[in-house]
Amino acid sequence: MSNIDNYANKKENKIKHKEQMKELNLKHKTDSIKRKKKHNETKKLMKEDKKNLVAFNKENKKFLKDSKGIVQDKVKEVLTWYSENKEKENITKKHFKSKLQRAKKSMYDFSGPISFENVSYTYGWGTPFEFKALDSADLVIKKGKITAVIGMTGSGKSTLIQLTNGLIISETGRTLVGNFPIIAKTKKIKFVKELRREIGLVFQFPEYQLFQNTIESDIAFGPINLGADKETSIKKVPELLRLVDLPEDYAKRSPFDLSGGQKRRVAIAGIIAMDGNTLVLDEPTGGLDPHGEEDFMKLFYDLNKKQNKRIIIVTHNMDHVLQIADEVIVMHKGKVISIGTPFEIFSNNELLKKIEIEPPKLYKLAHKLKDKGLDVTDKNFRTIEELAKHIKERIK
Ligand SMILES: Nc1ncnc2c1ncn2[C@@H]1O[C@H](COP(=O)(O)OP(=O)(O)OP(=O)(O)O)[C@@H](O)[C@H]1O
Predict the structure, then answer these.
(1) Which of 34, 123, 335 is the pocket-test mutation for ligand 1 (most atoms within 8 Å of CB)?
(2) 360 and 321 in contact (C-beta within 8 Å)?
(3) 159 lines ligand 1 (CB under 6 A)
(4) What angle do CA 10, 11, 12 make, to 5 degrees?
(5) Bigger pLDDT: 106 or 331?
(6) Residue 336 to residue 150: CA distance in whole angstroms
(7) What does the pLDDT read at residue 1?
(8) What is the pLDDT of residues 75-121, one digit of tens each?
(9) Which intervals hold domain ABC transporter (predicted)?
């Protein structure tokens, strides 16, 4: 290459670099303006929400005052029980304290609907990384159902479900778990242990949280830590193992000798051991093979149908949603934009396009058939057998 060519190349590169820097600076500036605008909007929202928070706190105080009598009776019951039984070997101080704590929260019923009222949440408030993950979201998750939360990456699904057990607290509105209120900006949730006993949150790869020497102690750790009697908690382990489809005689084995899927079952058994009404699962089948995924879906379905547990599942797998969900919540940019049955959501092509989500395989097939002149998209189906039945009826 001649010196002249070399010089021309260098010059061209310099110009390109300058242009790229200019573009980057411009993007940085626009992002920063957008962020500031959002920051100010949220500030305004928080100001407007102040009067709601005052009303919520007032409502809560009144509720506590009205329930005083019930609580006092329950506390008295526990005190009498302890004074009559404290000499017995299996009645520990920890056991007594846990019972007393439960009596003190007896006015709360966590099992009812979970309502999110105008909840917002911002990560990195006031920093250059500020991001509003929840934007005045409103939603009710019913009791006893399987609810799937779907939406594109970053739409706020995980953030929303973390509000349910007080892992994070919203900056506006409130979350009601049954009649237990978590009011925005609360610094410390009273009865947080009871709340977490009721709402079991299972994160992605829960098996990484196993740490005890035996499967038995891992499963019983949660309830014992919350004050339950050690002997009773250990006795329940075989039943819990059966529930998650593991052999009972695994109890004394080390959890670290198990396969990934089996470890995950142990971790889930540990959450179920807390005996709450709700299981919240964030991408629970990540990293499993299709067969393992199917097994877990069956497990969650059975926990709902046979043990009456409310299941809330965040997932990107629409086939799973179709398979087990009673209701589907659609999140988009921090808001709930649609709620419906799997049929209502998956037959709505416009909605799916907006959230950039592919429908389950069976719905894709139905849409393809429609393009070829055989329309069964107005029919409700969950399985290949049901779809086949509708097709047969159409071509009769
Ligand atoms: N700890 C954090 N710090 C800063 N930003 C965060 C944090 N956690 C989440 N975010 C941001 O908030 C947004 C919403 O996150 P969230 O995890 O709720 O979304 P999601 O819908 O569950 O996404 P995915 O499907 O990818 O798990 C994301 O864009 C993410 O960048």
Answers:
(1) 123
(2) yes
(3) yes
(4) 90
(5) 331
(6) 10
(7) 61
(8) 999 999 999 988 877 777 877 888 888 898 889 999 999 999 999 99
(9) 114-358
